[in-house]
Amino acid sequence: MASKGQRTRQRIVDQALQLFSVKGYYHTAINDILQATQLTKGGLYGHFPSKEAIWFAVYDQALTVWHGIVFDGVRGCADPMARIRRIIANHLQAYLGGDCFAGGCFFVNMLVELSGQSHHMSRHILVGFVQFSKLIRGWLEAAGAQGCLVPHLNHREVANFILVAMNGAATLYMASRDKSVLDLTQRQLEDYLDRLLG
Fold it and tell me: CA angle, corner 41, sides to 38 and 42, nearest 5?
């Protein structure tokens, strides 16, 4: 069972995650977090030395949520192309379409806001996107080695294209809340993957 301190820390992270997602990092004041958590400044700073430290804990929490949704059922897919199709569907329909965070995709929101403002924070997010692309690339390479794909594919470009398409869908969906954007993106990516099959 979590201690009172652990529960308080988690409450700070949960409330800050929704605030950062909706208002952005720079438009969220410490007083906003205090009001949402009903803590005093001393209570808050007893758990985190700064707003930036809260953000890094929030990032980890958002990543845990995203990972749990996007990778649901992936381990059961022996076929690497089936894994890619599964994460695309999970990311678009369950993560984005599930409106996990009030402001939409936390990572896209933060990357746009923090780029040019905080190099080390935006870099932290960008590294996550690069790792995700590398994972997709690895699955594409595995499918290619099995003879499942057309020859001479640039696996890196394909992986990056899939990531860009999903992030583009995220921005359009956040602006419109029109789920047909997610459906269309999924269908188009499915068709694209079908054309890669050998």
Answer: 110
Could you tell me which of 184, 133, 124 has the C-alpha nearest to residue 154? Answer: 133
Given a contact cutoff of 8 angstroms between Cβ atoms, the answer to whether 27 and 21 are in contact is no
What Cα–Cα distance (Å) separates residue 60 from each residue in 116, 118, 145?
A: 22, 18, 34
Q: What's the start-to-end Cα distance of the chain, in Å?
A: 52
* pLDDT confidence of residue 132: 97
Other Cβ atoms closer than 10 A to 128 = 16
- The label of the residue with tokens 């984005």 reads 96
- Sketch out the chain's domains with CATH numbers: 1-51 (1.10.10.60), 71-196 (1.10.357.10)
Q: Is the pLDDT of residue 19 over 80?
A: yes
Nearest CA-CA partner of 16 in 69, 52, 64: 52
CB-based contact 124:154 (threshold 8 Å): no
pTM over 0.70: yes
